[in-house]
Amino acid sequence: MGPGSTGTRAGTAGTSARRPGSAGTRSGTTGILLLLLGAAAVRATPSAEPPPCAADQLRCGDGSCLSRSFACDGDRDCPDGEDELGCGPPPPCAASFFQCRDGSCIPGLWRCDGDPDCRDGHDEDPGMCGTPRPPRACPSLQFPCGSGECVHRRWRCDGTPDCRDSSDEEGCAAPPPCPSGQLRCRDGRCIPAARACDGTPDCRDGDDEEECPAAPSCPAPHWFRCRSGECIATAQVCDGRRHCRDWSDEPLKECGVNECLVGGGGCSHGCRDLRVGFECLCPPGFSLDPDRRTCHGPPGTLLVSTRHQVLALGGPEPQILRGPLKHVAALDVGVEEGSLFWGDPSEGLIYRAPLAAGPAVPLAVVPGPGSPAGLALDWIHRLLYWTEPGSGRVAVGDTAGTRHRTLHRDPRARPWAVVVDPLNGYLYWSDWGSHPHIAQGAQDGAPPKALVTEDVERPQGLALDQSSQRLYWTDGRLHTVSSVALDGSGRRTHLRDPQHLAQPLGLAVFQDWAFWTDPHRGSLVATRLGGGGSPAPQVVAQELFSPEAVVILHVGRQPAGPNRCEGPGGLCSFLCLPSPARGPGSPRFSCTCPDGQHLDSDGHTCVTEPLGTLEPLTRNFSREGNASTDVPPAGGARPGMTALGVLLPLGLVLCLGAAGRALRREWRRRSTKSISFTNATFRKGPADPLDGGGLGDPLRPLTSEDEEP
Description:
With 709 residues, this protein is mainly beta.
């Protein structure tokens, strides 16, 4: 089956032998995918005997066929590794890399760092790394974690794991009973009993509002129901006067407090502050769950890239959308137009193909070997952004593949995952180079800034939730799933789990759920981010062959928005990039040129750089003249002509000065009398040579007869 084949069954879950890319779903968790994704799988009846392999294919030990181009490439493509048998020794790794026993190369800094990065853990071999150092002693007021770090003792048994291995929550006694006048929620918290059945859930899962007696209807937002049962006008709440019998309309700790400013009120999407309390809001097409905090909408479909296939998950069996392929790493999808984009790091190419049956088209973008690692689609302006960790480059191009250029380049950086927010004009990427961080940059190439710099070590997976306007990432060293608002505020750590987050790579967020891939375990894992329910991770798909990227095929993931490059002034000769709204009257877009060219004075046309001009590593498009305006620079003057008008007169003045100085020196030389002698001894007469006096000819050399007595 060649590239472009679709609709083929990927295999049966639970079998001991599998083809590259085969997948199985864990029993007990299929319901999550059916509920959230709702995609129907396309089944194909397997034949009794495997068909013969083509001439350009070889047969693996399990009977499957594999392209001969995959043989001896350093990757075990057959389940039994038969495609790598009888091959020569693997090529040596670069000087800054370490070679594992299977021939793969990892950065040298990962050797003996406490985390096994080779498949067999050879980089942490005690014979090479020595005996691990015992954990250092913690101060008296701190608790020693089993994973080696120290945390505050008051964090011990507080219900939240703070150690990487959660050892601070092990061996804890049952929580004490709640004080008199309070009741315990199912999550263990204690709340005042008076807050039960008050219409506002105070427990995390809303169980304080369950099994409540019938209460009078006080329709919001114009009416407020007191805890004592009566209804009052909303305008009477927090006005300094008692209107409820129990004073519940004047709570001291809630009047004048905006709960939405602290963690978004615990809402999964939007939050609106009220006179007392708050309410959670959902985007169009979504509904609020009984916990009054979580929004859910119509189902979507999960797309996962395994090493040689793109799978669609959501039914009893996975569906193969694309495959077999050489190597599928980065992945994104255009929902409205039905396009699939993926990056092949082995070939250094980006491909485009329809989600339905159709050929794959390689785009005319060749980032280089080992790239791209991350890929993001701007579905509004039809742009592709990708990262190249090997060169430290972030690049952009059109979806046709005919135009592309470098946005940022830093040899010290290792940009990995990338996401784009075309509604606001910003770009985000994870960087685990010399200074790991999450970066924020403008789509038009303005200088980026570090959005998250603390408590981040190896940021890998990255996802942007448009509905909640939050940025999520996984950290392979800290074993966490975290998020932050798009302005860098309100950081949260949703999960810390060394077992399920041992090697997280791809990340997707959808309807209060997070999905990530684990290539080391060959699984797809999901957890709930907030609201009701337990946040315990669940393996929803396993026996995947080296899963890397995961994306959501859902219309709510790519909402419609204005195209800043359309309309007057949006005609760029090369590439139009949207600009964020930086203030009143700020430009809507920026024209840009291919590497090695710059904008002409009209702000839209590209011209070639002069010979000898070197392109800097990091480009700032705003200094090139493409200030994203629809009006050319003042006076229509060209920057190069302006410089020439200053330098030419200055050079002319310098040349005239030098010529005048040379003429003056020549005149002085010709008007000055000089003499030349052949003898080193002379005698000067006492009289003035001008009146002819003295001892004979002043030019005659002295003799013995002329000596004074």
